[in-house]
């Protein structure tokens, strides 16, 4: 085994034994999933709660209205035991006197002026039941009114909720996959961002650890700094691969189990996600080299600091570049030839994220891909040379931060 | 016929500067195969910089530094055992894995590295700590592990930078044993230190570095000779007078002093002068060669020798 192989083996094995690695690999995605589930459950629960609150509210509350607009349906008023008040003052007085639970005032131009609600205090709630009850009463009445006027029940339904859309798109006369084509390259882009964030700390520790432990001198006299750094970069890649595999395996299992049962937003069946070889190859090339660029820069960055703790305070200075293209998403989708998108495509730090996004939305040409990749490749080589230099010099500058100027 | 010494380390016209600061000006010396060489100097004299440049960690501004005739590269690490001044290992890794890792980087196969590591740990009484993380060990135990990493691959050249610094007496004795053993097996030892008693005990030849260049160089006897021969060691009570026409006092304690006599003055002149002092009673008057410690102090405090 070569010395570089020994470095890789040592670094990978000891990282796999660290709790922090498994925390980052399992617990962080798990937390994201749990938060997502809680958010979904909370939204679902809130919706159900509002509906049941409305139903029970009308059953138990004593409600009065003053319908100046003349839109509230008489049958609904009767069915819900709602009291019609002669004017606003009377309704408000009835609430104050505790004769009514709530009083709703629908002014003549309700669409513009809105509904006024006067009600007994129910405590602090994000969605007070009287508000939604006042709105539901108006909406149901309007729906009924439209149905009766048009004698077409669908019109009311369409006004209430947009119907689902199934689309078919064509390019050069050939059917394309539309929005569904974004899914696979989009996953590669998200994977890139997740890995940059998850591996950032590992990359910094890879160079600060020897410095903090004063082990750099022995190491640098035992192995060439280039072999050491390449070994460390590759070991982080292997760890990234392990993380991807650990995250992907449950997703694959879920895919196999649910592929015939789940339809993704946009009406794409899970078993019909389109995968284009050229798009995926471009995606993986930029994922791989983009990661290599970020890992190298983060390692070089770590070499400048006396400890991982101090370096980690400034990590965002590098990580932020992978996220900046998100803010240009509108330009990337609609104006791919604009100056900002072109700059982001060719600037090495924004290139991986921008090209992966453009690759996903299909707004990048082969020429752009090739030029950007060439720049990225040269940047990776330069970044590795930088980290070798930074480690060689910085690793022995114990206990102090060094400037980039000192390296050259 | 005595054998011609074979150089193991050769440093020729070496100079290095960092920015505008010239750390080493013009340094040349040789460490011969099989000898223990003392590389001495005060703090900041440039000893560690020289060692780091010899081992390829710094580039010289001028001159050449070689081991076995070659500029050092990590490919030669199996031949060199280096104990740096700033020492440490992976604190959060188990002792055995750390030792095996470094032994493998020094060119030993994994099985052999495990075997040698365990043998060493048994020898220094740390066999039961093999699976412990380094950080769980005491300072002295960590030093033993560090020494193990330096010698496990049985190097032909050991470069020990301040090896006894912060060592407890047990570990110091262990290090002395290890140096003696390695020497018996033909290894060359380059010892960077400012502990003169160790130098007198271990070294064949020495170099004293001052202001970035060689101030004294040769065998211990040659250095002592070149420094001016002898001193007068006095044990006394009372007040020792100053008399620069006869002597200079280069060591003075409450009842002990070392005097270096002036040119064209004999020991008899000094003895008679001291005996004539009414408030001074000399109990011991001994003419002897200066210790390396005396030379060291005089060199760095007194501005060198002529």
Q: How would you describe the overall organization of this protein?
A:
The complex is a heterodimer of chains A (408) and B (306). Chain A is of the alpha/beta class and 408 residues long. Chain A is elongated, with a radius of gyration of 31 Å. The mean pLDDT of chain A is 83. Chain A is 67% helix and 6% strand. In chain A, helix 1 packs across helix 10 (225-258) and helix 8 runs parallel beside helix 11. Chain A has helices at 3-16, 19-60, 74-79, 88-96, 110-113, 129-150, 153-160, 183-212, 216-222, 225-258, 277-303, 308-312, 316-323, 329-334, 339-346, 351-361, 366-394, 404-407; strands at 63-67, 83-84, 102-106, 116-119, 169-171, 174-176, 263-264, 268-269. Chain A is built from 18 helices and eight strands. The two termini of chain A are 33 Å apart. Chain A has a four-stranded mixed sheet with strand order 2-1-3-4, sandwiched between helices. In chain A, strands 5-6 form a two-stranded antiparallel ribbon. Chain A has two domains: 55-160, D-Maltodextrin-Binding Protein, domain 2, CATH 3.40.190; 182-407, no CATH class. With 306 residues, chain B is of the alpha/beta class. Chain B folds into two domains: 7-224, P-loop containing nucleotide triphosphate hydrolases (Rossmann fold); 230-288. Chain B is 31% helix and 31% strand. Chain B contains nine helices and 13 strands. Chain B has helices spanning 47-54, 95-105, 110-123, 139-151, 169-184, 196-202, 220-226, 267-275, 292-301, and strands spanning 7-18, 21-32, 36-41, 62-67, 80-83, 157-161, 188-193, 205-210, 213-219, 231-238, 247-253, 256-261, 280-288. In chain B, strands 5-6-7-3-8-9 form a six-stranded mixed sheet, with helices on both faces. In chain B, strands 11-12-10-13 form a four-stranded antiparallel sheet, with helices on both faces. In chain B, strands 2-1-4 form a three-stranded antiparallel sheet, with helices on one face. The radius of gyration of chain B is 23 Å and the shape is globular. Chain B starts with 6 loop residues before the first strand and ends in a 5-residue tail after the last helix. Chains A and B meet through helix 1 and helix 9 of A and helix 2 of B.
